[in-house]
Structures are given as structure tokens and as C-alpha cells.
Design brief:
Structural class of chain A: alpha/beta
Radius of gyration of chain A: 18 Å
Distance between the termini of chain A: 15 Å
Largest interface: A-B, 18 and 18 residues
Helix content of chain A: 40-55%
CATH class of the largest domain in chain A: Alpha Beta
Strand content of chain A: 5-15%
CATH architecture of the largest domain in chain A: 3-Layer(aba) Sandwich
CATH topology of the largest domain in chain A: Rossmann fold
Strand order of the largest sheet of chain A: 1-7-6-5-2-3-4
CATH superfamily of the largest domain in chain A: Uncharacterised protein PF01937, DUF89, domain 3
Order of helices and strands of chain A: HHHHHHEHEHEHEHEHEHE
Largest sheet of chain A: 7 strands, mixed
Oligomer: homodimer
């Protein structure tokens, strides 16, 4: 997906949010906003949003002198995800189509902004998410490809959400699949890192790969031309690719292989691209 | 009210909206965004939002070569307001406290973004607005000051909304008040102009004054140091001042005279300043 003009105010809003997570110093918040605005005057709209987001967050990290502004919010999300896990697992076990329920929960995990809600709210949000209208029209295709696949490349998104992924990973492992779970090598927004995957115990279910785009090249979502040889190789040869969240959709929607996207649509430009609505929980294949 | 860092992404979002109303040329939209970002890097946060909004919209007008980007949206709002008027008037007549109902409707008129909804929706929105929780704790003070007042200065906000003002103006005229209704002399966003007040027939109820801040100095909301001698004189000597909308609140909340604000709270910074919540319909006195 290309970047749209609407992404500009969104980048600026997120810059302020990130700067505030990194420091309480309002002068630094102002410096961040001004430098980000200066940078955005020179960008190309041919680049995808995750690539521009990388540039914006590199500025934020440099000015705030914080390599990981979202650290505290990420840790809180993980703890919340961990506390919810057994309840979520029961949902999967009790369902007659446990694979579909695990997929739904993996998508629902993408709806929740853990950082901003308390534990009671989260329970409510999950119950509401499960009542919501899922677009799982690609589920038959998902099952067909899954049946024919041995190796699965699973691209993670956020902390907290990784506990929801774990449910689906377990289902896949139970039916004999071998999974590579890809997290980010370097901090970017609230995306999950190696340490988060380990915290969730995902290293016991899958091989963890860190998507290493190099220093200051961390992108929220996968940007192919920053990816390592190792990643590109797996992306090419693995039988099936599952990608979580909007960032991965923005980075990979035009790529030349079949990818199954599990996401909550959070922006009307992505909604337009997928031909759906904001707030929709979607399992979508790009081909 | 001072400008906050959160106002920055909001200004940029509005710039894109205004540029799109002025032209379909995407290159010009991009030019507008970039020039606005360039300008915002040099602003002082001591200035109030309406003052900075003036600067931003002057850039938009210059680059799009449109002196009135919201013209079509404004005209549509007026037509919608006009079509609703008799129904609104019935609400006032049927209520046992017709003054309070007229005040509530004048506030409700500020909730509706006419440009974005069809006629059926507007009826629904008004019904919902009337069911909503008004903060009219300043109503006793409003009535007391009204009883002691002969001349009232009434600062208008948007087109369409002016038909809701008309209901309140009628109530005030019926009890013998003399009103000066202040609109903008030059186009700024969707604020009402002289021609709009005439379209609504308000010139038959009140003396219309155009708040003339000079060329390219039109502000959404009143900024005292741009105001004419004539306006400042009336602001000082009139017995009572009623001001509509957030822009007037932002510009006048700190001013050294009693002002009655009728507004819908649309931004959490204003909500914080008033000590209320976003979405609240408020009659508020600044003293």
C-alpha cells in the first residue's frame, strides 16, 4: 500500500504519543513534532506507511534519546495477555471448530489496545469482539492451503496480542505444522520483540526469527527491501504465510505470493484497500 | 485558551479537509500540507487556537487560490437549517420553559456537522441531542443577567447553526431585548457571514455586525486583538454577551468580562479547560 495524505496527521499524532511515552519534558515533545513535520515535507508518497513510520520513529528515538518509548506499555500489555490466556484457551477448547475460534481470537487480539484499558475492560472487549461480525470468507482457502502445508511463516504484530497468537500456534502445532514466528529485532512502536515471544512461551511452540532490518531500520510491519536474506528465503520457500495486523498488510498486500492477513481494520484507507469497513475483524488473502 | 501540541495534528487534518473542498488537484493538497507543516514549525504556543487557525487557513486560501473553500458546504448547511426551522420552532413553542428549550436547541445546532449528513440523519441527530445530558448549571445566572439586560451582543458560529440561533434570538426579542448578532466579515472555515445571516432572516430580528479582522485576518472564533474599535466598544458596553461554539470559547474564555458560552465540546483540551467531557452540550459562564 502506498502512503496517502491522510497518513500525515496520523504520523504526527503518533509522534506526540510516542514522545510523551518517552519523556515528560514538553520542550522535547515540541522538538519531536517540529522535526517530524520538517521531515514529512520531503517524503515520497510512493513509500508504504510502515517505511515512513520507520523514519518518523527513528527521529523520535533520536530526539527523546529513548530506544524503546513504548517499553512500559508493552510490558503491561504482555502481563494482561498472560493473565487472560487460560480464559482464552477455554474459548478455543469449548468451540466445535477450534481452529476457527483460534483464528478469531488471534484477530481479536489485534483489536485491543491493552495499554489504554484495565483488566475488566479487556474481558468485555474480548466478549464484544467475539460477538462482532468477522469477515472470514477466506477461511475455506486458509484451510485448504493449511492442509497442503508443512512449514508456516507467521509474522507477529504487537505485544499482548502475542498471547492470542499463541492459541492459534498451538492449534497449528497440534496438527503437525512447523512454525517460524517472526518478531522484530529492534523496538518499533509496540511491536513484539524476541524477549516478548519468550515471555509468552512461544519459543516452545515455534522457531522464533527476529526480523532484523538493521539499526534504525525497524519497521512496524514488514517492508521487503529491508528484510534479511534469511527472512526473504523463508518468505519464498515456506508453504504458507500468515501475517498479523495492519502494518503487515500495508507492507505486504502487493507482494507476489499468497499471504493470509489476520487483522482489525483501524484506518479507512486500509478499509478502502480491503473493500471493508473500519473496525471489521478480517481474515483476508491477497490473491 | 493557549494552543496545545495536540492542536498540531488537528490543524493538519483540517488543512487537508479544506484543501480538498477547494480543489480536486492532489498536488495542491500535498503543497498545502507541506506549507502548513513548514509554518507550524515556527508558531508560538502562547497564541490561541483561533489565531493559529487564521494563519493556517490563510495559507490554504493562498495556495488553493480559493477565498472560501467551504462555500458549497456552507450553503448546503443553510438550506438544511432552513428546512428544519419550522420543526425546531414547534419544539420551542411546545415546551413549558421555551427560553431553556431555545437555548438547548441553539447549543444543539453546534453539534451538527450539516455538511456530512443527509436530512433524515439531521432529524435523528437533533432528537438525540435533545435527549442528551445538557450542562445548564449556569442557566439561573443566565436568566438573572438577562433580566437586568437590554442590549445583548450575540457572537455567531457556523452556517446552518444560525437557524438554531434564530430560535433563541426570537425568544429574546419577544421579551424586549435588543440584539447585535456578530458574524464574520471574511470567510473562515464554515463560519457564518453577513450573507448567511440575511439568508436566515436574522437581519429582521437583530442588528447584524460583521466582525472584521481585516484581510486574511479572519479567525474562527473571536480574537480580541484583531477586533475593530466598533466591536470592542460593543463588547465592553453591551449588557450581556452570548458566544457560540468552541472557537469563541477558545478566544474569549480568559477575557475580563462575563460571557455566556453555548457550545458542544468537540475536543478534549476544551473539555479539560471547562472541566467536562467531549460531546457534552454546555451553557457555561466564564466568571
Amino acid at each position: 500500500m502506498k502512503t496517502h495524505l491522510e497518513c500525515i496527521p496520523c504520523f504526527i499524532k503518533q509522534s506526540l504519543e510516542a514522545a510523551r511515552m518517552a519523556t515528560d519534558n514538553e520542550k522535547i515533545h515540541e522538538m519531536v513534532l517540529k522535526e517530524v513535520m520538517s521531515h514529512l515535507q520531503g517524503i515520497s508518497f510512493e513509500d508504504s506507511p510502515p517505511e515512513l513510520s520507520r523514519e518518523v520513529h527513528a527521529i523520535i528515538k533520536r530526539i527523546t534519546k529513548s530506544n524503546d518509548p513504548y517499553k512500559q506499555a508493552k510490558d503491561e500489555s504482555n502481563i494482561m495477555g498472560k493473565n487472560l490466556y487460560s480464559r482464552l484457551e477455554k474459548h478455543v477448547k469449548d468451540d466445535k471448530d477450534s481452529l476457527l475460534m483460534a483464528i478469531k481470537l488471534a484477530i481479536a487480539g489485534n483489536v485491543i489496545d491493552f495499554g489504554t484499558m484495565n483488566r475488566l475492560n479487556v474481558n468485555e472487549v474480548i466478549d464484544n469482539a467475539l460477538k462482532r461480525d468477522f469477515d472470514v470468507s477466506s477461511y475455506p482457502r486458509f484451510k485448504k492451503v493449511l492442509d497442503q502445508s508443512k512449514n508456516i511463516l507467521y509474522l507477529a504484530d504487537n505485544t499482548g496480542e502475542i498471547f492470542f497468537d499463541k492459541l492459534l500456534l498451538k492449534e497449528l502445532v497440534n496438527i503437525g505444522k512447523e512454525i517460524t514466528y517472526v518478531v522484530k529485532a529492534n523496538p518499533i512502536i509496540n511491536d513484539a520483540l524476541l524477549e516478548d515471544a519468550k515471555f509468552a512461551g512461544i519459543d516452545k511452540l515455534a522457531t522464533i526469527m527476529a526480523y532484523d532490518a538493521g539499526h534504525d531500520k525497524s519497521t512496524p510491519g514488514t517492508v521487503m527491501h529491508y528484510a534479511s536474506e534469511e527472512f526473504l528465503d523463508r518468505f519464498k520457500v515456506d508453504d504458507m504465510v500468515i501475517a498479523k495486523g495492519q502494518g503487515n498488510y500495508e507492507g505486504l498486500s502487493d507482494v507476489d505470493r499468497e499471504v493470509f492477513f489476520l487483522l482489525v481494520v483501524k484506518c479507512h484507507l486500509v478499509a478502502q484497500d480491503i473493500d471493508t469497513k473500519v473496525g471489521k475483524l478480517v481474515l483476508k488473502v491477497n490473491k
